[in-house]
Amino acid sequence: QVFGCMRKEDLQVTVLSTCPVADYKTQESTLTLPSPFLKALKTKEFKEEVCCPLLEQPNIVRDLPAAVLSYCQVWQIPAVLYQCYTDVIKLDTVTIEAFKPLLSSKILKSLVKDVSESTKILKKLLTTNETHNNIYI
After folding, report:
1. Which UniProt key words apply to this protein (predicted)?
2. pTM of the complete model beyond 0.85
3. Which residues constitute the domain of residue 32?
């Protein structure tokens, strides 16, 4: 429905997603992998350089990120998915920091004012969010 309201000309989609490192398929032990880490998956029309290694087979992407990327592939919209594999369940600053290299990408560069302040801002946002997520009995 979101794409139905948008013009497809000059559209480029970037999807950010996280999933458990246990879902990552590799020959080596996942215990030796530096967590969190990024992998990318892109449509055929996405011509820019990605900010991390591409996702290897037999790894798969699920749910909404997969649906968005599939839609973009079918409708020939340039799109890239950045999948962060992490060993934590709840989003934290370390996991978000894994996305930091994307701030220098061509498409996201114009949205960023000051990269040096990003860590401080992220910590503040997460601290505020944690306060709202607490259940008091």
Report:
1. Chaperone, Proteasome
2. no
3. 13-112
